[in-house]
Write a structure and sequence with these properties.
Elements lengths: L1 E6 L8 H11 L2 E5 H21 L6 H10 L4 E6 L8 E6 L5 E4 L3 H18 L1 E5 L1
Antiparallel strand pairs: 1-5, 1-6, 2-3, 3-4
């Protein structure tokens, strides 16, 4: 299973820097990597371009353009309460104007990380959506 966090109806996405600031106020451990964020977005762009080239499903050109523009501002964030824990932690790309997406390595990871997801959503004022 996976989850997305997105602003509640009528509110705007927070900037990556505001997301990080709010996570730092909520969690004991927050690590940020701008290079990982940019790499992640480049990977999404490449995958979508390949899908488009194969012609299997249409790819939204406007979405691709938004990702290309947002790429420079993207960051990857890792957070939790215990930096030594491999399952009670979360990580996601924070892409300007996009929902936060969380996937899990296992059911145990999901169960251990879900309380963190709830706290993350509350700190950001976002809602949790099953993906």
């Amino acid at each position: 299973m996976a989850h997305r966090l997105a602003p509640q109806d009528g509110t705007r996405f927070l900037s990556p820097r505001v997301v990080v600031t709010r996570l730092e106020s909520e969690f004991a451990y927050v690590e940020v990597d701008e290079d990982d964020g940019r790499r992640h977005v480049r990977g999404i762009i490449r995958q979508l371009q390949k899908i488009g080239e194969m012609g299997l499903i249409p790819v939204d050109a406007d979405y691709l353009d938004r990702l290309k523009k947002a790429q420079r501002g993207a960051i990857y964030v890792y957070f939790g309460d215990d930096p030594g824990s491999e399952i009670a932690c979360l990580s996601t790309a924070v892409i300007p104007g996009e929902a936060l997406f969380f996937d899990y390595a296992s059911r145990a990871h999901e169960q251990a990380a879900y309380p963190l997801l709830i706290r993350c959503a509350a700190a950001l004022g976002y809602e949790i959506i099953e993906a």
